[in-house]
Design goal:
By secondary structure, the chain is mostly helical. The chain has one domain. It contains 17 helices and no strands. Helix 5 packs antiparallel against helix 6 and helix 12 packs across helix 15. The radius of gyration is 21 Å and the shape is globular.
């Protein structure tokens, strides 16, 4: 419980931490003064109205949304991985949780959508959910509606459905080897694309330092895009090197296939649409689970060294990404962190 409470409190008790922090505070104050609901922020306004009775401060709204983000992700990770959920939890804290200090509403929707997807897939696999029995779907449908109310982009999570159906069809068929080769081929293309984009970007960043090319600097100074494209490299590498070892169950295959989807979306949307990578956030929690699947797969190996090597990679990757993206590049403006008590 303490592991869940600490990130929630850090999100609730912050002052001027996160790019959109001031905007969320203003929205809470606005509802304090006008007390009515409007537009796409209606659910936010409902929560703001309820929190007025608790002290009339944005701290309660931030605590509410952070609780959703943290608790729903943890529950989904525990459902999918059991005792290995701590690996996915570490990746979440280092990569996705800091983003939630900026994109407050959307990251809450991401966690709820992830929770619904994992529980539905597990339920279908284990027979707990029957497609033709509506009553077995009611809770999950309501949770899905809740995710959309938090942020309308949660509808993107519907893409999990065709991914699951494809995995199930192939899993029951006779072309499993062809499927594995196809996934590896796609993953190799994603990996090559991601690495190529990163190399070109870093080279371009150096070239624009030359005076004659300085006018193009704005194109390659988009710090919001490249760290996200960097995250596409790891899932793609997982597909190539560890698919056969990790894909022991239908759920694992679903998670790995969803990781490929994340890699494709993050590259395509980051390269084409400003802030388009935010759509791919709904698949990012899945790739956290991939790393845990790899570590879990080594438990059957007689050599314990591979297992600890996998643990070390997860830790280095997550901490390294946190330092590069959030501390060094200042992504989402979470540093310097300060508590609300000091800010006021």
């Amino acid at each position: 419980m303490l592991g869940l409470l600490i990130p929630i409190l850090l999100a609730a008790l912050r002052y001027n931490v996160g790019t959109d922090y001031a905007s969320y505070v203003r929205q809470s104050v606005f509802m304090d003064e006008h007390n009515f609901f409007f537009g796409r922020d209606a659910f936010w306004n409902v929560i703001a109205n309820f929190t007025m009775a608790a002290g009339n401060h944005a701290i309660f709204v931030l605590a509410f949304y952070s609780s959703i983000t943290v608790v729903f992700f943890y529950l989904a990770a525990r459902k999918a991985l059991g005792k290995y959920a701590w690996l996915a939890w570490l990746l979440f804290l280092c990569i996705l949780y800091p983003v939630s200090l900026n994109a407050v509403r959307q990251l809450a929707a991401v966690s709820v959508a992830f929770f619904v997807s994992i529980y539905v897939v597990r339920g279908l696999i284990n027979g707990e959910i029957v497609i033709r029995r509506l009553r077995t779907w009611v809770g999950y449908i309501l949770a899905g509606v809740f995710a959309v109310l938090l942020h309308s982009t949660a509808l993107v999570a519907l893409l999990f459905a065709p991914i699951y159906m494809t995995v199930r069809l192939i899993d029951r068929g006779k072309n499993r080897e062809l499927y594995i080769r196809a996934i590896k081929t796609i993953a190799a293309g994603v990996l090559i694309s991601a690495v190529s984009i990163l190399v070109v970007w870093f080279m371009a960043r150096s070239i624009v330092e030359i005076p004659v090319f300085a006018k193009y600097a704005g194109i390659f100074n988009r710090e919001d895009r490249m760290p996200n494209i960097l995250t596409a490299v790891a899932p793609a590498a997982v597909q190539i090197f560890f698919w056969r070892r990790a894909a022991k169950t239908t759920l694992n295959k679903f998670l790995l296939a969803s990781g490929v989807t994340y890699s494709i979306l993050i590259i395509a949307l980051s390269a084409i649409i400003p802030y388009g990578y935010r759509i791919a956030w709904y698949f990012m929690p899945v790739y956290f689970l991939q790393f845990a699947l790899i570590a879990e797969s080594f438990k059957r190996n007689k050599s314990i060294h591979y297992k600890y090597l996998a643990y070390s990679f997860v830790i280095l990757w997550s901490v390294g990404f946190f330092i590069l993206s959030f501390y060094r590049n200042g992504s989402h403006d979470i540093f310097p962190y300060q508590f609300i008590f000091g800010g006021l």
